[in-house]
Each structure stands twice: as structure tokens, then as C-alpha cells.
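Dear colleague,

Thank you for sharing your sequence with our group. We've completed the structure prediction you requested, and as agreed, I am returning the results in plain text so they can be pasted directly into your records. Please verify that the sequence below matches your submission; if there's any discrepancy, let me know and we will rerun it promptly.
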Amino acid sequence: MCNFKTLNKTSNGILLFCPKNRTFNLSFRNLTFNFNSEELYDFIAFIGKIDCDYWENEYKNSVYPKRIPIPTFQTNFIILLDRQEVEELRFLLDFEKKDEFLKLHQIQYTLILN
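Please find the predicted C-alpha cells below.
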């Protein structure tokens, strides 16, 4: 059993570190990933290079509201995200930054102006 250390957390995900096994667990929405440090940094680099504008334009006529693909090794399985999910995932994976403020779209609150 591992005593996980929370590295970062958002409204839709959490990034955990297991010191015993030196592994990372990323849970985001309904997805869960287990990484060693090399795999995690490769995934961070991949997510950081996604061009949201390109993919949204490429699939502008898609029937799916989520248009940004994340390929997997399983050829019949692709993860689809929207721009806000990609940005939240980037924030979640940027666990080395400290004292950063939330952006407006990250606050899940209904604002009522009176």
C-alpha cells in the first residue's frame, strides 16, 4: 500500500505520487493513468505541444463536440478532449509551479449578478 502525495488537483482531476514505487497516478474526469517518471514527462511534453486551434479546425465538421484527439497504443481507442479540458490537463500536469491563481474558467460556480 502506498501513501500517495497529492501534487496537484483541479475540479476534474488529481495528480498523485507514490514515493514507495516512485510512480504517478493521474485521474482526469473518467480516465486514470499510471506513469513512471519518464512516461509522465513524455505525456506532459505531448500535452504541452497540442495545437488546439489546428485540431478544432481540422474536425470543425465533426459530429462530436470534443475535437482534440489524444492517440493511444490501442488502435481502436482515441481520447477526445475539448479546449477547456486540454487547458485544465496542462494546469494539472504543471505541478512544479507554485502560488498560481486560478483562471476564471477553472472556477465552477454560478455567478448571479444582482
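Summary note from our side: Residues 8 and 98 are 10 Å apart (CA to CA).

Kind regards,
the structure core
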